[in-house]
Design goal:
By secondary structure, this protein is of the alpha+beta class. The chain has a domain of 166 residues: Calcium-transporting ATPase, cytoplasmic transduction domain A, CATH 2.70.150.10. Helices cover 49% and strands 18% of the residues. Strands 3, 4, 5, 6, 7, 8 and 9 form a 7-stranded antiparallel sheet that branches. A two-stranded antiparallel sheet has the order 1-2. Helix 6 runs antiparallel to helix 8. It is elongated, with a radius of gyration of 30 Å. The mean pLDDT is 82.
């Protein structure tokens, strides 16, 4: 049997089972947790200790990332500059100006056979293309400035997001010691300490709690704070805020496998489908 740091490489519970377990709330969650033997048994299946946490060796951490995923939700690929230019061109006002410029240019080069036309009129017609060209150049300038601003904002936002994620630390127990690690380094099986003011970086199940209340409005829309406890509602979710109390949890889902990650993934898929549908309608129209 393959081993990792002296323990079996095969965990006692699968990623799919953990995801299904975290879908339950309240008393139903307590009942589902009891079916796997309770939180202590769950920790045994994940080869972690409720008191000492993970060993924290590089081999163990990497194996957990390979099995359960890393605590990173990959962002949508950034839009290219040419894509932003194309989107800017879809503005209705700019489309009207483009058509007007092309019509003006076309009329400026149209010369009806009229021998009696005065010389002054011929000179005005000769320079009539300037107006259409000016409109066209103005549209091009507006499009490129808009695309450049959008491109700069997106780069700044992504840079700020990466910096925030890199600076955000969280308290976990590894090797019987409390340490601060980056939220991206958290793995399934980590024992995390949570307290008032924390933004939870991963899904977990409470091992112990002290008057713990959580704001889950970002995920469920429920404005009231939800009381959490080992015997009441032991499931805590990523993306929620701790409003009162403190506690300790075992991490059961990270990244795209957490409840927040699943929602973000579905929202991204929904946006992609909506954009594809709009493109189809435009082509059909």
């Amino acid at each position: 049997m393959a081993t990792i740091d002296g323990r079996p490489a095969q965990y006692g519970i699968s990623l799919k089972q953990l995801r299904e377990l975290m879908e339950h709330r309240g008393r139903e969650g307590v009942a589902k947790l009891s079916e796997v033997g309770g939180v202590a048994k769950l920790c045994d299946k994940l080869y972690t200790s409720t008191n000492d946490g993970l060993r924290g060796t590089r081999t163990d951490i990497e194996h957990r990332r390979e099995t359960f995923g890393s605590n990173v939700i990959p962002p949508k690929p950034p839009k290219t500059f040419l894509t932003l230019v194309w989107e800017a061109l879809q503005d209705v006002t700019l489309i009207i100006l483009e058509v007007a410029a092309l019509v003006s240019l076309g009329l400026s080069f149209y010369k009806p056979a009229d021998e009696d036309a005065p010389v002054l009129q011929e000179e005005e017609d000769h320079h009539g293309w300037i107006e259409g060209l000016a409109i066209l150049i103005s549209v091009i300038v507006v499009v490129f400035v808009t695309a450049f601003n959008d491109y700069s904002k997106e780069r700044q936002f992504r840079g700020l997001q990466n910096r925030i994620e890199g600076e955000h630390k969280f308290s976990v127990i590894r090797g019987a010691e409390v340490c601060q690690i980056s939220v991206g380094d958290i793995v399934v099986g980590d024992i995390a300490q949570i307290k008032y003011g924390d933004l939870l970086p991963a899904d977990g199940i409470l091992i112990q709690s002290n008057d713990l209340k959580v704001d889950e409005s970002s995920l469920t829309g429920e404005s009231d704070h939800v009381k959490k406890g080992v015997d009441v509602d032991p499931m805590v979710l990523s993306g929620t805020h701790v409003m009162e109390g403190s506690g300790k949890m075992v991490v059961t889902a990270v990244g795209v496998n957490s409840q927040a990650g699943i929602i973000f993934t579905l929202l991204g898929a929904a946006v992609d489908e909506q954009e594809a549908e709009l493109k189809k309608r435009k082509k059909g129209w």
